[in-house]
Structure formats: C-alpha cells, structure tokens
C-alpha cells in the first residue's frame, strides 16, 4: 500500500473510481483493508470488500489476463536476472517498452469482458474463457 496508493493518486481517482484486488492474505489483512476502505469508501472490490469479488475475476483484470504473462516472457527472454534489483530493473524496462497500441488493445479487451460479465449476470464468460 505504501507503493500502490501514491501511484494511484497520480491518476487523480475520483468518487467513481473502484479498486479491485485479489484475495491474497496480505491484501485482505485488516490493516490493508482499512487503508483501502479509507481510500475507496464503498468502492472496494475484494474478498470481504464493499463489493463482492466477481466470478472469473482474473479475466476482469488486465494485469492477470495480459500483463504478468507478457512481462514474464520479456524479462526472461534472454539471460535471467541474477539479483532482485536486476529483476526489478528488467521489469521496469519492459513495462516502459510495452507499445501503446498493445496496451490500448488489452484495455479494449478488458472493457469487452466487463460488458460480458454484466450481460451474463456474473456467470462464466463462456465465449471468452471456454472458447468453442
């Protein structure tokens, strides 16, 4: 949270901004939830949050359906980082090298999945996840 909240503040979140996180123990600890509830009152999508955790939620977050897999491939494409500092630097470099069009495409897909989730009343995104 000491890293995330200042980063979010750079984007000037307003009273309509929602925050979604997974159910990792460190994310749902009382101290974490307390800080997030202060930052996003009534707008926290989380296990035990203000808004229930949606089904198939990894497909509703751009980092899960796109970013982490892409970064892993790029960071380890050549020689693997040898230190934690090297790993962090490689991740920063690869994030900065993501083409704008690729990010726009990923976010367009994100919006499509959100619409499908609403249309399916929260059920599986059959055409997206279980492609025939």
From TrEMBL:
One of its GO terms (molecular function) is nucleic acid binding. This is Transposable element Tc3 transposase. The lineage of its organism: Eukaryota, Metazoa, Ecdysozoa, Arthropoda, Hexapoda.
